[in-house]
DNA sequence: GCAAGGTC
């Protein structure tokens, strides 16, 4: 019997073919430069038994959907017609050779086995493969291999425990695809058509709406206004210092700070009147600093922007040149491969010699990809500078994952001074372990404390009443933005960087160098891309979560890029917000709702048809309301884009 | 010219 196996990408096809064939495999080129067909024999056991196998792949989605040609024009039929315009599925020109290959190979096969990634998109790609194969063999039988990594034993077991393609997941994805197309095209055409006539800077812009790009813009605008509308608040505190054994101990006040001066004075004077302080408790307990979790793509992007000063897209491009394999493999063998390195080889050797410890398990498991880790040793000379730094991070992180947590002894000292409680916290690092290789983390932010005994009294060296002002939050860094997108389900780990790029291309946001600048410096430094000046409206102003003490504002390092909205970005977000619909296009809720609906389809609680009908009606209503209140959007553009002193 | 999602 002949079987056709199809993976989602070349690397998986190659790896699976390698494992199933046991090494005896013939490779054939296809008309597509990326796609190879492998042929070999394999015993699937049970129903299929011994088979002649052809293993090949696609490269991501094979098809895309589009509106029929009558809907090409941006103004007629009017954009709202796109909510129910007919849609056709077609194969992009550069994918035709792949589809043809599948149809050709299917002709000789009785069974088709889908080896796409085991996530929702993978299930949909699987269905696209089935459709293409049936063009060549309409009666081909379809099975699916369920696997989460390409470790040999795991692949073999997946091949012998075939399941069926999950239609519900396929439906969930096709629902998402259709909604994104209809909503994105309708709003983009409408916004562009109706705001370009304002002329000037707006004349040549494409004003796009997308279910991911708009919430992403919303995050940037929201933070901008939190900074802009921030009102500093004065606070007062009590600082207690004591010198002992040549060490300076800083006791922090249990109340931290008060926003009322008189109250603080009264409390402070009570402390001074008491003269002596009494140690109420001394507690020592073992503590540890956890080693990092295995590396996810999102974490890699965050680390790349934060520690390595790359942007997320650069990091992804570089990281894709390595591959990602799973923990099912022999991790110690991977550690062993790192022993030749000048920088971390010795550390790797110590792990091999017995210090190895199984990595922690994080809560994210997409069942499709294992954590990122180095699969081979790359000498510094074979990588360019960016690649080298990223590779170094991946290796150090991996070695850290495979070593022990750092071990320390924590000391807590509680003290009573007048009516007030104070405490000091210290740590002695006993074993550095992973910290020796993971140079991106430190554990020296807490000092070693001198000896104190419970019940003892003493006169504190210094007791001061201090005052300070709260400071605004910082603008969003790329790492912040990725974290927000991740937390709100905006985009996937592979697309987040693209959405961030998109809102820059659209001139909705700009990046600026944050080197300890004030908001005013920021505006002056970037008049070219028109970051906003003089905004009003949103933001929480006084207080709220974004508030920080001035004492901790030292985190503004130079050279970090932060995101600020342009006038245009502010105008669009405020314009929609001021229409005050029950549904906000600028916030992540709609995307979250879409995610929930997809999940409901997967769980059989609703269907593709129901969700499409509901969501299209919902968005059409918002669209109609937007048309009716276009004046609000236009007014916002006039206010922010045109009413600028320098224009 | 327009979305978001795969991947090369």
UniProtKB/TrEMBL annotation:
Documented EC number(s): 5.6.2.1
This protein's record includes keyword Transferase: no
InterPro entries per UniProt: Topo_IA, Topo_IA_2, Topo_IA_cen, Topo_IA_cen_sub1, Topo_IA_cen_sub2, Topo_IA_cen_sub3, Topo_IA_core_domain, Topo_IA_DNA-bd_dom
Gene3D superfamilies, per database record: 3.40.50.140, Topoisomerase I, domain 2 (1.10.460.10), Topoisomerase I, domain 3 (2.70.20.10), Topoisomerase I, domain 4 (1.10.290.10)
SMART domains listed in its UniProt record: TOP1Ac, TOP1Bc, TOPRIM
Gene Ontology MF terms: DNA binding; DNA topoisomerase type I (single strand cut, ATP-independent) activity
SUPFAM superfamilies linked: Prokaryotic type I DNA topoisomerase
A Pfam family reported for this protein in Swiss-Prot or TrEMBL: Topoisom_bac
PROSITE patterns: TOPO_IA_2, TOPRIM
Origin: domain of life: Eukaryota
Residue stretches making up the Toprim domain: 2-148
Keywords assigned: DNA-binding, Isomerase, Topoisomerase
Residue ranges, compositional bias (Basic residues): 535-545
Function recorded in the entry: Introduces a single-strand break via transesterification at a target site in duplex DNA. Releases the supercoiling and torsional tension of DNA introduced during the DNA replication and transcription by transiently cleaving and rejoining one strand of the DNA duplex. The scissile phosphodiester is attacked by the catalytic tyrosine of the enzyme, resulting in the formation of a DNA-(5'-phosphotyrosyl)-enzyme intermediate and the expulsion of a 3'-OH DNA strand.
Family recorded in the similarity comment: Belongs to the type IA topoisomerase family.
PANTHER family for the chain: DNA TOPOISOMERASE 3-ALPHA (PTHR11390:SF21), PROKARYOTIC DNA TOPOISOMERASE (PTHR11390)
Protein name: DNA topoisomerase
Source organism of this protein record: Epichloe festucae (strain Fl1)
């Amino acid at each position: 019997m002949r079987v056709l196996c199809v993976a989602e990408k070349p690397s998986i096809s190659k790896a699976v073919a390698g494992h199933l064939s046991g090494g005896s495999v013939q490779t054939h080129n296809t008309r597509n430069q990326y796609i190879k067909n492998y042929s070999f024999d394999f015993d699937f056991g049970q129903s299929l038994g011994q088979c002649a196998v052809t293993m090949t792949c696609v490269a991501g989605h094979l098809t895309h959907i589009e509106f029929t040609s009558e809907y090409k024009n941006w103004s007629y039929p009017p954009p709202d017609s796109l909510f129910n315009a007919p849609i056709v599925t077609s194969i992009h020109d550069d994918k035709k050779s792949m589809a043809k290959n599948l149809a050709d190979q299917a002709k000789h096969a009785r069974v088709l086995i889908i080896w796409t990634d085991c996530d929702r998109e993978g299930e949909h790609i699987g269905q696209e493969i089935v459709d293409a194969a049936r063009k060549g063999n309409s009666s081909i039988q379809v099975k699916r291999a369920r696997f989460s990594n390409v470790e040999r034993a795991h692949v073999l077991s997946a091949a012998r425990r075939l399941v069926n393609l999950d239609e519900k997941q396929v439906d969930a994805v096709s629902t998402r695809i259709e909604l994104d197309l209809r909503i994105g095209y309708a709003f983009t055409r409408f916004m562009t058509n109706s705001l370009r006539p304002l002329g000037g800077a707006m004349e040549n812009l494409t004003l796009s709406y997308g279910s991911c790009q708009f919430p992403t813009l919303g995050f940037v605008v929201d933070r901008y206004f939190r900074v802009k509308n921030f009102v500093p608040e004065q606070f007062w505190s009590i600082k207690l210092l004591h010198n002992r054994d040549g060490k300076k101990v800083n006791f922090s006040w249990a109340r931290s700070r008060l926003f009322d001066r008189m109250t603080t004075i009264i409390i402070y004077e009570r402390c001074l009147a008491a003269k002596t302080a009494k140690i109420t408790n001394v507690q020592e307990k073992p503590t540890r600093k956890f080693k990092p979790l295995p590396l996810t793509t999102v974490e890699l992007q965050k680390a790349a922007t934060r520690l390595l000063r790359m942007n997320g897209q650069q990091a992804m491009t570089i990281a894709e040149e390595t591959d990602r394999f799973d923990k099912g493999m022999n991790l110690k063998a991977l550690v062993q491969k790192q022993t030749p390195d000048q920088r971390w080889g010795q550390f790797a050797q110590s792990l091999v010699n017995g210090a190895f410890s199984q990595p922690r398990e994080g809560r994210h498991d997409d069942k499709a990809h294992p954590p990122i880790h180095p699969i081979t040793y790359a000498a510094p000379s074979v990588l360019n500078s960016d690649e080298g730094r990223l590779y170094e991070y991946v290796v150090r992180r991996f070695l850290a994952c495979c070593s022990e947590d750092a071990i320390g002894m924590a000391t807590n000292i509680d003290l009573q001074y007048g009516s007030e409680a104070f405490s000091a916290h210290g740590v002695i690092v006993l074993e550095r372990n992973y910290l020796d290789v993971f140079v991106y983390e430190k554990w020296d932010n807490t000092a070693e404390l001198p000896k104190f005994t419970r019940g003892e009294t003493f006169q504190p060296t210094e007791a001061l009443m201090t005052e300070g002002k709260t400071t605004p939050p910082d603008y969003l860094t790329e790492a912040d933005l990725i974290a927000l997108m991740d937390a709100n389900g905006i985009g996937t780990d592979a697309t987040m960087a693209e959405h961030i790029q998109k809102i820059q291309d659209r001139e909705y946001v700009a990046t600026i160098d944050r080197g300890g600048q004030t908001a005013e410096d920021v505006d002056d430094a970037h008049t070219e891309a028109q970051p906003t000046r003089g905004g009003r409206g949103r933001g929480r102003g006084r207080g709220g979560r974004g508030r920080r003490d001035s004492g901790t504002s030292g985190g503004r390092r130079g050279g970090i890029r932060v995101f600020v909205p342009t006038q245009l970005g502010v105008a669009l977000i405020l314009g929609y917000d001021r229409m005050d619909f029950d549904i906000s296009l600028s916030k992540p809720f709609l995307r979250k709702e879409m995610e929930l609906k997809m999940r409901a389809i997967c769980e059989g609680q609703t269907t593709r048809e129901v969700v499409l009908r509901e969501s299209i009606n919902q968005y059409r209503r918002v669209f109609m309301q937007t048309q009716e209140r276009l004046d609000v959007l236009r007014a916002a553009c006039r206010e922010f884009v045109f009413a600028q002193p320098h224009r």
